Each structure stands twice: as structure tokens, then as C-alpha cells.
Amino acid sequence: MSAIKGKLHLPDTGAHTRQAAYVIGGADTTSKVRTVEQRANRWVSLGAFRFTGTPTVTLTNATADGTADEDIAWDAVAFQPLPGKPNHMVVGMGDSYSSGEGASDSGGDDYYPESDYYNKVSGDKWKNTCHRSRHAWSRRAVLPGEQLSVGELADGWSARMDFQFAACSGARHYNILNKPQSGELPQIQQGYLDQHTTLVALSIGGNDMAFADIITECIKKVLGLCQNSSIKERDPDTGEETGGTTPALKDWAPRWAHDTVRPRLARTLNALHTKAPNAKIVLMGYPRLLEGGGQCVPGIGTEEGPWLNDMGDLVAQEMKGAVDDANAQYRANAVFADPRAAFAGKAICGDPETIHGIVVTGYAEADNTKPLPSMKSFHPKTSGTAHYAKAFEDALR
Questions:
Q1: What residues make up the domain containing 134?
Q2: Same-domain status, 261 and 364
Q3: Checking DSSP bridges between strand 42-59 and strand 241-245, what pairing results, if any?
Q4: Domain end residue (candidates: 82, 100, 131)
Q5: Could you read off the pLDDT of 50-74 as tens digits, one per residue?
Q6: Percent of the chain beyond pLDDT 70?
Q7: HEC states along 13-55?
Q8: pLDDT-derived band of residue 387, with 50, 70 and 90 as boundaries?
């Protein structure tokens, strides 16, 4: 019986699918299928496995997203012998705050190419805007007993680290559980969680809370306060718009956070624990977005900024409550990491400002044709993911 790390090299041409299913043969694990997004043009890890027989990797050209014109390929496959199970088998999951949206100082080059792709000819067919950054906080964190960060260990193919990255910008809880996103399988179905996983790092809940819709309403509201306004109502299970509108946000948001978001997060934590029963699960919260009332952001008024921060505090309280619920109901082995103190004085309008305000370059799609604010808006800069990494390290202690 031996421990081996599997890795493969993916080309940047002739490899389109976002659901390539690599079947690992001879492995002693409950997850023997690993889903890998193509277009990577680099060596990527399939993970570390304990083998009882001859290690094999097979790949079929039949995928759920296939339409007979999406090629599938790899250049090479290799096996790296390990002295034993890696000390850390980590999976990074969740939404844009986990993927590293905004942590790209060179205009997008810091995003892994398979997670930042759009082609005018194919349109949405092969689009992927998950925006996984090399500077994401889960990669920047230094785990207990280590001197190098998770990313440094993973990039150096250290025998001590197996890191898998499934987070996707825009994810809601159902994109973790059962709904594809950007052409990728639901994160929990990609095969990286099993009985050998030691740590799950994720942020989820902000999009379930419709925080982007709330902020947009505050910015565009001309008359009155946004907290007295409404947003489009969405189905709690599917996320689809129902055609209705919410009550006034000041009344709706607290009820939605407690009655809907909190229990769905607890169920999500339970699902992760079921897949990875031996892992510690860290649910990362969100920072207060605004400093000094947020008046450096066009459209944010003197009463709206503090209310938005209050909503951030409310969400943090309910997220911590969801962790408590998951531990009490499911023994989920989860902890809540709170980044608010790490960002104090350094959010939007702060000094230094480590969260983007409204960004108008590098638009919403990679082809830069849509006149919309960039997806980087209201997300941590590269300097901000360092604050996140600190909060994560503190939670692990």
C-alpha cells in the first residue's frame, strides 16, 4: 500500500470541457472521480491517494456538458510517490470571496486561465468567470506547523500538502450542493472531498443574502434611503427570480438572514461534513465593507453606509449561528472565522484601502465588451486577501 500524488498536464488548445472526469483506479478512497476544468495549460493536481493496486487514470470523452464539438485532452499524466499521507489535504470552496475575485493586480493575469475565459465567437458556451486567483486567501494562509503558505507548498508539489481549489465567483449555497455554475459541476460533486480531507476552507452566504443586489440598490437609488426600498424576490431553493419584490430591505433582510440563510448554511456545512467526515470546516465571514460611512462611493448616503455595515454585522452573527447549529445538530466540526477585525480601518474609503470600491475597468466579462462595473467591485484587493489569511490562521489556532 503506497501514497501517491497524481498530476496531469493540460493543454491550452483542444481542451474545452469544464467537466472532464478523471477516474482514479486502484485508490483506497471514496472519491475516485476527480473533475478538472480544461484550458489550464499547466500541470494540475488530481490529488493524493493511497493505492492498494496499480495506479491508473482513465478519461472518457463523454461529459454532461458535451455537445460533440468540445474537445477533451491531456498531454501527460504522472505519479509522484509520497512518504505517506500529506499532513494537509485542503479543499478551498465557496463564492467570490474565496475564489479571490478582485485579487488580480495585473488586470486578470493572476486568475487561473480556465477560470477566466470568454470567447466572442462561442459566447457563453464555454464561458467561465469563476475567477480563481493565485492570491486567494486560502492559498496565502500558513497552516499550523508550517513555514510556507498553502499556495507555496502546493505550487512546489510538497509531499506535505494536497490543495484543491473549487471556489467560484457568484456561488450560492446550491452551487456547492446541486446546481452547476459557469459550466462547472456543483463544488461538492467535483470529487475532492473524502475521508482523507483534513481541512475545508470556504465562504458562502453573501450571495444567498443578495448582498450584491442590496448594494446595487443603494448605489442607484436616487430618492429616499435604500433600506426603505426593495429588491427582486428570488426563489429560496433555485435562486431564480419569482417576479415579485421583497418588503422594505430594513425589514426583509434581518428575517431573510435568520429564517432562510442561516438554516441553509447549516445544511451546507452538514453536507460538507458528510462528504469529508474527518475534516475541520472553516466558514469564513465577510468584512464590513465601508469606512467612515462609505461616502467615497458614489450613491452611498450618510445613513445608508452605516446601515450596510450593520447588515454586514447581522450576516456575521447569523453565519456564526449557522456554525453553532451545524455543530449542535450534525456534529459538523465547523468553526467560524471572522475577518472584521483584520479589515478594521482598511475597507472601502479606508487608509490603506484594501477592498475595491466601484471598479470600471476590466468589465463583467473577460472580453471587456459589456459596459458594467467590473466583478472586482466590492471585493478584497490582493492586500485584502492577506487580512483574510490572518483571520483564517487565527480561527485555526
A1: 88-396
A2: yes
A3: unpaired
A4: 82
A5: 888 888 899 888 877 767 777 788 7
A6: 93
A7: CCCCCCCEEEEEEEECCCCCEEEECCCCCEEEEEEEEEEEEEE
A8: very high
Task: Between 273 and 299, name the one with better pLDDT.
Answer: 273
Residues 336 and 287 in one domain: yes
Report helix, strand or coil for 130. coil
Mean pLDDT for the chain?
A: 90
Q: Starting at the earlier edge strand, list the strands of the sheet with 280-284.
A: 161-165, 88-94, 199-203, 280-284, 334-337
Residue burial 343-365, b: 16+ Cβ < 10 Å; e: rest: beebbbbbeebbbbbbbeebbbb
Question: If DSSP codes are grouped into helix, strand and coil, which group holds residue 3?
Answer: strand
Residues 46 and 101 occupy one common structural domain: no
CATH (domain of 312): 3.40.50.1110
Q: What is the pTM of this model?
A: 0.94
Q: Strand ranges (DSSP E) for 196-252?
A: 199-203, 232-234, 241-245
pLDDT (0 to 100) of residue 55: 86
Closest-CA residue to 158 (of 229, 260, 88, 60): 88
**Whats the size of the chain, residue-wise?**
397
CB contact set of 62 (below 8 Å; sequence gap of 6+) = none
What are the cell numbers at 123?
459566447
